[in-house]
Amino acid sequence: MGEGGRAPWQAKVTCGGAVGSGFLVTGRQVLTCAHVVARADRAELTFVGLPGLGPVGATVVERGGWAGRVDDRGDVAVLLLDEDVPISPAQFADLDDAFADPAPKLVAYGFPHGFEVGALTEFRVTARQLIAGEWNQLEAWTVSGQSLARGYSGAAAVIEGTNKVVGMISAAAKPADVRTGRMIPGHVIARHWPDAADLVPTPGFTRDEKARLRAALALVRDPLRPEDLARFYTSAVGPLGPSYPTRELTSLWDLAWYLVSEVVPPPGRCPAARLTSDLADWTEDATAGAALRQWSENRPPPTGPSADTGEPARTWPPGTWSPILVEITRSGAGPVSYVVEVSAFPGGHRRIIDTRTLPKSSVRAFVREPIDAAFWEIDWKAKALIAFAVPVEWLNEPIDEWRRAGNDRTPLGFATPLVLMDNDRRRSGSVQHRLRQKWGRLSREAASDVHRVECGGGHDPELLRLRLEDVHSPVGLGRPPKLAESRRLLAAALNAGMPVIAWSRTACTVTHDPDVEVHCAGEEFLDQLKKRLKDVSPADLPADIHVLRKDAHLRKDEEARWAKGLTLLWEAPPLFPEPRGYRQSPVE
Known about the structure:
This protein is of the alpha+beta class. It folds into 3 domains: about 1-190, Thrombin, subunit H (Beta Barrel), CATH 2.40.10; about 200-295, no CATH class; about 320-575, no CATH class. It is built from 14 helices and 21 strands. The strands form 4 sheets. Strands 1-2-3-6-5-4 form a 6-stranded antiparallel barrel. The protein is elongated.
């Protein structure tokens, strides 16, 4: 752990007869659980990674509001060391690192009974969801080995290999043979001890910006009621933003930190900046108002790279596309019955517009009105995108030519960028893992170098799938998936996790002799596709394909004919949430 596997910033905490753990987070500040130091205001710390250092005294200087019961929130305490120690503090991981796929192994160094110099335990986070808005559940990495127990409270939960902290152990299950526990994640620690906000990376906000935000908020002395916090929240996220959190916000800092660390900003909006601007107008304290207004004016919408990580801010792609999703899934009630759900995603949060179970023959007519209604929900400043997630047998349907609602009979794909996704592979963990990896690389490219799957016969689907595992570019199919052979080639590309696949429904469907060179409609399509997309970013392909479709529809010349029937399968995982169960039973 750490350099050479060590983490000397971990400490044994002894206070009033209780023994727990802690970890150094600044030059002289140590984090631990409030229940570890509940009996006294003084503690003794031993940094077991530096046995020659000797015990160090410390004073409890912060308590997170823990009321003394197991399920009380705020089980956080800060100790101030009596003297400096020659140890570099721990570093916190990014907010999402504990929830990577595959799940990373987490390690904690604690002091259970009988282990004077400590013991390690290994575990993983069960799920991203917080228990009561406060804790992540932990589960043992293996069925054997040291389990979480008394003496681990206050220990840092670190990612093996990077040794970065994702949270603090706060409880173990009882009885001991239930190998689970709880962790207070980094962003919740900062909720109870605001100084920790400087230590927890948050995309789009630097350490200095967060410190200045805390300082400006601390100047606000005006009393705030719960309904005031709810009103400020609604104004901060805007009418298209996420709904008020299920747990009640308890303070002005709780509100601001929630906006910084847990809200994906709606397109073109910085909720924390809107909050400080509203507060500046509301407060009667001139000093507080000036500080809040200055912070607000210096915070542009976070659409660029994260100041903490250098990675693209979490506002992409919601800042680029505001999507409408039509999910069509087999209902289980028969071979031609489907569950159809239409949703909008303002600010990256799903809002269901309508859900029905229908025969295939009724789907086209049904989706018109919900799609039109979904346009009321998406951000008008962003680019609209309609995505159909359909069963694989629907992928060659002319969905982009389906008509819009009401008196506007313009085909959907000619009026708005429209893409397809394979709903079957959205429910395959292994394929989604490959797809996310490929999209992470593909989305940063400035051009689309199309990988051709030629129209000529003789392709082996399994060999194609293996070759595509090393391809990180859009795939162009010379033949539409009408015949059995071409359907197998599409399946190979789908199973390889290719995020972007394009073909023409009107291209060549003739079976060619693999030993004879041909130049047919399928080869012409691939030639034109490669030429047209060579300067287009994969992230922008829906817009460019939209233009090609319109040209092919409006123009009758040979130059535009190649794009007639153009189908774009385009799946950007950050744009949509994980697939989930439907809100009604799929069988009626």
